[in-house]
Design goal:
4 helices; rod-shaped
């Protein structure tokens, strides 16, 4: 609102206070030893605080909120003719967006891997159950075959004995 009504100093003050609220929030969680967010740093040799925070896994933030603040700061500094400050905030904004996209991409890959794992587990169980069923079927078939063979041998032996007795009686 302030930026649209050419109240740029008020808009800048509001965006700066938003960064200060993030700082206060992080001081409450992480203590005084954490770096503070600033609207702009002219030092090229110092990495922006958000980019340092992005690398640390022990710091969690509302990255979308910080990205929105940086986007507004970039527009404000651009309207005020402060190109270096606008570029700085644009760089931080785009870096945060890139990181958020990577996080979402990784989350999506994790979901896909979990689904694939569940599918593979289901397939493994199905194969195991089918293997047991095939083993049982083969066992039952072989047992039946053995019994049928034994009955056949018994019948053959009985027939041979009967034939032998008949032959003996005739001779």
């Amino acid at each position: 609102y302030y930026a649209r009504t050419n109240m740029l100093e008020v808009a800048l003050d509001t965006a700066t206070k938003a960064l200060e609220f993030v700082n206060i929030q992080h001081m409450g969680i992480y203590g005084d030893d954490i770096d503070f967010l600033t609207p702009y740093s002219s030092r090229d040799d110092v990495e922006p605080t958000e980019l340092t925070w992005l690398k640390r896994k022990d710091i969690s933030c509302a990255w979308e909120w910080i990205a929105t603040i940086r986007k507004h700061l970039s527009k404000l500094f651009g309207q005020m003719g402060m190109r270096a400050a606008a570029d700085y905030n644009q760089h931080v904004y785009l870096s945060i967006l890139d990181n958020i996209r990577q996080d979402k991409r990784l989350e999506h890959q994790i979901e896909e891997l979990q689904e694939a794992k569940a599918d593979q587990t289901s397939r493994a169980w199905a194969i195991a159950i089918l293997s047991v069923l095939v083993f049982v079927a083969i066992f039952l078939y072989l047992r039946h075959l053995k019994q049928a063979t034994e009955r056949s041998y018994a019948n053959d032996i009985n027939n041979v004995e009967a034939s032998f007795r008949k032959w003996m009686e005739e001779n």
